[in-house]
Amino acid sequence: MAETKANPFDMDSSTFDAEKYLERLLKDCSLRQIMDTEAAVVKDTQTLHSDMQTLVYENYNKFISATDTIRRMKDDFKQMETDVNLLKTKMQSITSFSEQITGTLQGTRSQLCRLSEKHSLLKRLQFLSTLPAKLKSLIEEQNYAQAVQDYLHAQKVFAQYGRQPSFDGIQRDCDAIMADLKEQLRKDFQRAGNTAQSLTEIGELLLQLDEKTSDLASEMLTCAGKRLHEQIVMLQDQTERDMLEFVDMGIDGFLNDLALVVTSYFDMFVAKHYEQERDDFQENALLELNVFLNQNIDKYLNLVQDRVESDIGFGDTQVMLRALDRLHRRLQAMRNICRGLEVQRNTVSIIISAAHQLCDAHAKNLKDHFADSLSAVRLSLVSAKSDAAAGLNLSDLISNLYVAMVEKIKGVLQDLLIFLRTDWSFNIKAEHKGALCVEGIRENLLIGFLRHIAKVMCGFGDASSSSPPNLLLVLSKTCLELEQQGVHILIALVDDLYEIDSENSATLTHETEICAEMRETAQALLDSYVRLQGTNISQMLRKSVETRDWLNCLEPRSVRAVMKRVVEELGSIETVVASLYEATTNTASGFRTTASSDSSRKTYFSNFASTSKPQYRSNWSNYTPSQLESSYVSNIHRLFSERVEIFTSVEFTKASIVMGIIKIGLKTLLECVRLRTFSKYGLQQIQVDAHYLQMNLWRFVSDENLVNFLLDEILGSAVQRCLESVLMEPNAVEIICERA
């Protein structure tokens, strides 16, 4: 440190040597460095000069200011010195006068003191002498507080002079007056209709008049309970007011009075210690107050809950929640006011109950809306003029039904979201029951309604119901749309709106379960549609077989009308189904335009065929009478042929649906044929009808082998049930069918 200060090359040091610094600089530095050093020194010098000027200017201004201040102080001190001298003179004068007065009154001072004391005593005596009259006057004016205050003030005087005969009489009069007042206050305290404020004021006066504390405490709670019950009864009659006005009346009346009673009781009996009472009096008083508080809050909240239940589904939900939020805030404030007391119940339970009830109301509305939508669909189907028009209209019906259900559910979920608004003072999700309620919106409302949809729709497919076929088709397609899109959209919406983690929950229903139920319902409805349409076709075919005399038939000249009607009916059905389900062919209309090759047909009588026929014809038109006698061959063929399942579930495609209907109709025709006996012409009529069906039914199916197999079975059964098994020539059969 000493070396640093003694450094001759340090410009900031007092030992700086300019000659040595310059000599060292010229010796060690280049020209460029010397010039840079010069510039730096010049710059530092200018900076220091500027700082020095600034410092001088600042100190100069301060110096000028200090000079002015000193000058003003001199002037002020001169004036102050004059004032002090004047004050000194006056104080001396005052002291002189005081000494003169003291000297003058020295002899009468003690006498004045005695007179002052006597005057004060006379005032007290005058107060006591007029006290009975004054107390009566105050009581007549109902100024009970002032009367009690004057009486208590007089007690100190009575305690000192009460043994005097004159004072003793006054005291007895005052005691009698206050005894009457005390009795009147007791009656007023017990009188019905007292407000909480008046109860508190009367209780305070009775305590000052030495009323027994424990009795007064019990009496106060009893009387306050009667008054609060009257307010409850009054609130029960306020049915015409809306929820917000109803709650405001309860807050301004019932809750305010309850809070006043509780705080007054606490201050009078719990916060104060009374020597004449037992040691546990305060503890017992606090327990009684706690019971009183919770009983009355329960009564009021039960009344509010009853009002909420009556308003659910009829009033405005937002108004109801605003009222409950205001009530919740008031009860929270009461908890803060009622020190040492525990309010066991709050409005959150009412709000959660209201959410449950609103969910139930919305669920009922959804079910009613769904029932109305189904009725509208049925009415539209009944009013349709033809199956073709119905086919064009089914897509609109399905779209309207699907959109109406989905949008209605979305609206309900948005309405219920009002319970979770962040500006409410309550948070139902923070409560365990509230969290279950939010999950209940998902499970009981949404999932429950989706299952209700599946159950109701499935009921239309029961064999006992008389549902129109097209209604079954509409409902089946609607369930399929829900399974493919609607279920995912709605469940994702409710999980997002209500922040529900359904993926990681073991108790919540998974989306796949509902989708599976919807698909099962769609499948059941579609199978019922196929069964019902197949039954309609079957009835036409069965009646046509059972009502005809097959033993006395004429030689066939045309196809029976029922076969044409069956083909027309299948065409109408295919048109309707094609409007909803995609075709399995590549043609624009969904109809097949060419038949499959004969090589793909493995029909019943294919083993007996000797020649090949056109592609649209089956091989059984080639049979000769001699070939038909080989019945044992047909039995062997049946053993090794694949069994055709008739009543199986169909796929959601046009070809599968129509094929299912055709299988039921042909199976019915087969069974009816097996129960009849045919003549030669009856057999030939069956041959013509079967060939006509073969010519037309291939257009409706993707695999005509099943159709050809059933037709071969029908003709084979007719051959076996025929008395004279002679078939018509193939060319003749073909001509008749083409002419038809």
Cα radius of gyration in angstroms: 56 Å
CATH third-tier fold name of the largest domain? Tetracycline Repressor, domain 2
N-end to C-end Cα span: 132 Å
SSE string: HHHHHHHHHHHHHHHHHHHHHHH
CATH class of the largest domain: Mainly Alpha
Which structural class best describes the helix and strand composition?
mainly alpha
CATH architecture of the largest domain: Orthogonal Bundle
Main location: Golgi
Pfam family, one: VPS51_Exo84_N
Protein name: Vacuolar protein sorting-associated protein 51 homolog
Keywords: Coiled coil, Golgi apparatus, Lipid transport, Protein transport, Transport
Explain what the structure shows:
The chain has four domains: 31-139, no CATH class; 191-338, no CATH class; 350-531, Tetracycline Repressor, domain 2 (Orthogonal Bundle), CATH 1.10.357; 548-581 and 623-739, no CATH class. The protein has helices spanning 2-5, 18-28, 31-105, 109-140, 144-161, 165-190, 196-208, 213-236, 243-270, 281-311, 317-337, 348-383, 387-416, 432-460, 469-497, 511-546, 561-578, 625-628, 631-640, 654-674, 680-697, 704-720, 730-739. The longest helix has 75 residues, at 31-105. With 740 residues, it is mainly α. It contains 23 helices and no strands. Helix 16 (511-546) runs antiparallel to helix 17. The N and C termini lie far apart (132 Å). The model is unreliable at 584-591 and 597-633 (pLDDT under 50). It is elongated and about 175 Å long. Acts as component of the GARP complex that is involved in retrograde transport from early and late endosomes to the trans-Golgi network (TGN). One of its GO terms (biological process) is Golgi organization. This is Vacuolar protein sorting-associated protein 51 homolog.
